[in-house]
Recover the amino acids of this structure.
């Protein structure tokens, strides 16, 4: 089992190696256990995170453009501060709950 701090490093490697991008997925992250993972700053563009457990995951500054992930999944994350969302907008936490800015 990969520790929570190493999950982010692993995902970054998989993305840079072209193994988790749309239309070329080699490693399947659907329904993956990403609980409490430090994914801050991770480049997850076009990654298929369908059904992945993001509970408590730190997605601060992550790039999620064109990734497959639901609002429900993102709502369980520890932080989305500064994350680039599916539509290219950035999330900032001004006060609870999170709010989206263009």
């Amino acid at each position: 089992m990969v520790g929570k701090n190493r999950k982010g490093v692993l995902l970054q490697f998989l993305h840079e190696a072209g193994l988790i991008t749309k239309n070329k997925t080699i490693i399947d992250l659907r329904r993956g256990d990403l609980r409490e993972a430090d994914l801050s700053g991770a480049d997850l563009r076009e990654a298929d995170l369908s059904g992945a457990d993001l509970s408590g995951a730190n997605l601060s500054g992550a790039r999620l453009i064109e990734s497959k992930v639901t609002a429900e999944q993102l709502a369980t994350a520890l932080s989305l501060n500064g994350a680039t969302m599916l539509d290219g907008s950035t999330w900032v936490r001004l006060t609870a709950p999170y709010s989206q800015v263009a």
